[in-house]
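job 3f2a | input accepted
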Amino acid sequence: MPKYQLNCPNLPTTPRVAREFVTTVLRTLRLDALIDDAVLCTSELVTNSFAHTEGRGTLLLLDADSLRNAVRVTVYDESQKPPRRLEGYDPESGRGMWIVDTVTDGRWGTESLGASGKGVWFELGDEQPRRPPKVRKAAGKAARKPGPPASPVPLSLPR
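job 3f2a | predicted structure (159 res):
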């Protein structure tokens, strides 16, 4: 699974830079179907980190798995305080983790780094790997194209 990393300073432009980073990586890996949701959730996590911490910045890690058609994004910061997911939708504030929870179907969480801070992550995409069809080669024969499996029972019975 390829891993990508972005070091983000604590600046107002950081959420935009993080969105562009996630878009570029997922487009390059041909995971286009995940881009919109991944960008939205990344923006929420990075914005929360920027708004609620006074640290030196954040570290964004992106793990992509094209076999699973999946991505996991983790945003690390120096705050030890976990994010709060408020119940329901408040049009004024506090809806970031509600959005992440809704978009990811609850596939998000936190990891404590002790005195060093925390990581907040989310996952999108398939939970189980998609397996490409196998092409079997018989000894001395050309590869067979994938098709319906051969019948395990003879089609005609002996007399």
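job 3f2a | The radius of gyration is 22 Å.
job 3f2a | closed
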